[in-house]
Amino acid sequence: MLYGKVLCTFLLFISFAACQSNQTNMNHTIHILLREGPLNLDPRTALDATSQIFGSLIYRSLVRLDKDLRPVPELAESWTVSKDGLTWDFLLRAGFKDHQDQKIDPVRVHECLESYRKDHSRPSIIRAFTETWKSVSLKQNHLKIELSRPDPFLLNELVLLRYFRVPGASGACTGPQNSEQPLIGSGDYQVTTFTPSLEGVLRLKPVSGTRPVLEFHFVQDENTKVLKIIRGDIDAAYNALSHSKLQWLRENHTARFSVLERGGSAVSYLAFNLKNPILANSRVREAIAHALDRRTIAQSKIGGSLAQTLLPPSLPEALLGSDTQTTSYDPVLARKLLDKAGYPEQKNGIRFRLTFKTTPFRESLELAIIFQKMLREIGVELVIESVESAVFFASIRKGNFDLFTSRWVGVTNGSVLNRALHSQSTANRTGYRNPTVDGLLDRSSRELNEVRRAALFQAVQKIMLQDLPYLPLWYWNNTLILKNGITGLKAEDLYRSNSLEPLTRLQEIHKP
Fold first, then answer.
1. pLDDT > 60? residue 152
2. Does the pLDDT value for residue 16 go beyond 50?
3. Between 17 and 388, where is the model more confident?
4. Quick one: average pLDDT of 443-450?
């Protein structure tokens, strides 16, 4: 009898100890290295790519995107759309709460969308998504959005309309915000530590369950990032290193790390200012395109693949095949085109000069120097103008550039072509004007049939590759470096959209 009691006590002790051990490891911390931090976590005004990817962890939306860029339910359980595309009916889920344990009921969701639609107190590109909304109504747990014209991209736009509350405000997704007082989120993770800065730390804790605490470290200097990885200061590095540093790590420390890689939805491009008389000549733009060895740069410097258009090949609207083979590397042809354009080589070998606007990031400057050398081979002198990021984007918006490179991040459908190419778009930085393209884009923005809409976008891309207001450069891969002992993911688990969601499944193997 005594033996039985001792055994029971021993087993209870072991069970309690195991439980305590599991509780200790339940929310272990994963230290993750990123290139830069978000500048703003307010979903109404956060427009930079880094802020957007954090927003999907901190806030919920009616729908979200899965790893292959398909809209899937979140606050909405399902939806239907009328045949004319003017009425969307969303069946709302029950059971969600925000980070202060208040229910996210249908009334709150309705308040949130109405706030996005009607609040003009602060500038927000997101509000432009609601310009076609005639009304938002609620009947029990059905939310109905009535449109003035069909919007085939509505689901993708709703991903960015995220649910939150402002402390002290009566409604959802509305009210002023004290900069020292964070918003009340609604997602799987809650912010515990954050200072808005390109460098620093952002710490997120899971609202419930056994997900890990995620501590993000933002470092811009390339050598510092490599040192942190080698020293074991971080557990994972997501899209944090240049291709050359990643290759060096693979060659010299392959036994200590594993690397997961999957094609993403980000595309880099070279933009031409068509208001510049030299660049207004289509032969000049074509010559510059033929002078740049994009394939070699993509493979050796970027670690991505050559871009054929502004849409990644994983999208159904992307233009593929022989129609895209118009700007292969051919410096001999480039010289002939410049001669025909009326820009012969002078005695000093220079035909004309152009200014290339860039930022002081190391990889940006390296790319500028590569372009400078390649264009010098055809007699074009490229003057590099490096400015801080804020000045760079302000200059681009004002049209104060000849050439610049940038990246569309999170391209999920063909609507990016509307923003980049339509003559009425404020995001059309090049000054491109083509009535045929405008007409095709206008039709695509109303076309509900996916096959016909894809055909319209493909026609737009063919014209774009002829006119070349932008030169597509390369598609980027998403790369995750994992320290030995960190598991839970495979390459196919990474999201094409660059989402941080897969990182919430990382686990640390505790060795005995």
1. yes
2. no
3. 388
4. 91
- The CA distance from 88 to 155, in Å, is 10
The residue ranges of DSSP E strands in 290-417, in sequence order, are 305-306, 352-358, 380-386, 403-408
Distance (Å, rounded) from C-alpha 392 to C-alpha 265?
Answer: 23
Give Cα 381 distance to the centre of its chain: 33
**pLDDT given at position 253:** 87
Residue 128: give the domain boundaries: 60-168
Contact 179, 40 (CB under 8 A): no
* CATH code for the domain in which residue 333 is found: 3.10.105.10
Q: Which of 168, 194, 210 marks a domain boundary?
A: 168
Does residue 480 form part of some domain?
no
- Cα-based distances in Å from 315 to 60, 68, 227: 25, 9, 37
- CB environment 376-407: b (16+ within 10 A), e (fewer): eebbbebeebeeeeeebeeebeeebbbbbbbe
What's the token pair of residue 512? 């005995």
How many other β-carbons are positioned within 10 Å of the β-carbon of residue 311?
29
Spatial separation of the C-alpha atoms in residues 512 and 504, rounded to whole Å: 24
Indicate the residue among 168, 188, 223 that finishes a domain: 168
CATH of the domain at 119: 3.90.76.10
pTM of the complete model: 0.84
Q: 165 and 102 in contact (C-beta within 8 Å)? A: yes
Position 195 confidence tier, pLDDT thresholds 50, 70, 90: confident
* pLDDT averaged over every residue in the chain: 88
Is the pLDDT at 319 greater than 90? The verdict is: no
Please indicate, yes or no, if residue 509 is contained in any of the structural domains: no
Instruction: Give how many domains the chain has, as a whole number.
Output: 2
- In angstroms, rounded to a whole number, what is the distance separating the alpha carbons of residues 491 and 480? 8
